[in-house]
Design brief:
The chain is mainly β. It has one helix spanning 2-21; strands at 54-61, 71-81, 86-97, 100-115, 118-133, 154-167, 171-177, 204-210, 212-213, 218-228, 235-244, 248-256, 261-267, 278-284, 289-297, 302-311, 322-330. The protein starts with a helix and ends in a 14-residue tail after the last strand.
């Protein structure tokens, strides 16, 4: 009883801190279509939950053939220690968007508490971001702009994050705020005016999913991810997958958010002698994208994931889709129960 009260107090304090982190302003977080297989990149509490030392690598190219479009790579390692009571992880992420180049170095720690038929994990993350802008690749309208830096400008921005994650063999749910500190991304020096330009914002992520047997050889795997900030569109990924023979997972994801409206401006003169009058028309798109995922399990330790995003918003007129590939290897992973937990 005393032990349970101790854990409840810890969970209550953690919830207060996590709720504070959800007071967000703008959305800048990296996007992964295979979020359901790459949770360590989104939630530090996931560290150690695979039950074995696990390596993963991911490459994503977004909006192919659009100049300056995002390109991302990540490498992660996490493992349980101390009899599965603690999980630790190390992740390295690289993002390149336009003239900006960022490296993220993450250390994750998760404390795992047996709860019901599963485990509740509370996670902490320490992060260092190396942020560089190639100003030689930028055409400045006003080269005297104080925000316009030098060719070799680089910043190092420390940060911290929190997460909570609960899972059984059939179900998982998690919430996280991976970056709590609002770093200054400008190169104009320490001035209060920088807050009007480019500041790192806090992010809130919520994920949920499960696996439901339909027949002896087919399972249904639903997943959901919500990325939330005030004053920005809410991103929601809704995934539905079918697992065949515990070897293949074929799924479709519908993503809402991002650019969801299209505005067209025309001019219509009131009379032959009158000045043109602006007319604005707005049409909502059917969502942000429709994504297709294929995951192949070559063994109980090795799996490969492929994803393609078909954009639904007006951005589709300027690129040829987004692609993602991911590989994961677990060392000596143990399986139990009738439901195969390898897809978690």
């Amino acid at each position: 009883m005393v032990l349970n009260l101790f854990f409840m107090k810890k969970i209550y304090l953690f919830t207060i801190l996590l709720s504070f982190a959800f007071q967000l302003d703008a959305q800048q977080y990296v996007q992964y279509t295979q979020f359901m297989f790459n949770k360590i990149a989104l939630n530090p509490a996931y560290a150690g939950s695979k039950g074995a030392p696990t390596f993963s690598a991911l490459y994503r190219t977004q909006w192919v053939e659009l100049d300056g479009a995002p390109v991302s790579q990540s490498f992660s390692f996490h493992t349980p220690i101390l009899g599965d009571k603690v999980g630790i992880g190390l992740s390295v992420h690289h993002d390149e968007i336009g003239p900006t180049n960022s490296w993220f170095y993450n250390l994750q720690y998760a404390y795992r508490i047996p709860l019901g038929n599963g485990h509740l994990s509370l996670g902490l993350q320490a992060l260092m971001r190396s942020y560089r802008v190639n100003w030689l690749g930028v055409s400045a309208i006003n080269s005297a702009d104080p925000l316009y830096g030098n060719a070799g400008d680089v910043k190092f921005l420390p940060n911290i994050g929190l997460g909570a994650y609960y899972h059984t063999e059939q179900f998982y749910v998690g919430a996280s705020a991976p970056r709590l500190l609002r770093g200054d991304l400008t190169f104009a020096g320490s001035t209060a005016a920088n807050t009007a330009y480019s500041i790192e914002e806090r992010h809130g992520l919520f994920m949920i999913g499960g696996i439901i047997p339909l027949t002896e050889n087919i399972k249904f795997k639903p997943d959901g991810l919500v990325k939330y900030t005030p004053n920005a569109p809410i991103d929601i990924d809704l995934h539905a997958g079918l697992v065949f023979l515990d070897l293949f997972n074929i799924g479709v994801t519908y993503r809402l958010g991002g650019i969801t409206g299209q505005t067209t401006t025309t001019t219509t003169p009131a009379s032959p002698t009158a000045l043109p009058v602006p007319v604005t028309q707005t049409r909502n798109s059917a969502g942000d994208s429709m994504d297709f995922i294929l995951q192949i399990l070559f063994s109980k330790d090795l799996k490969l994931g492929l994803a393609y995003d078909y954009t639904l918003s007006q951005v589709k007129d300027f690129h040829n889709g987004s692609y993602e590939i991911m590989i994961e290897y677990s060392i000596g992973k143990k399986l139990s129960g009738n439901t195969n937990p390898r897809f978690f």
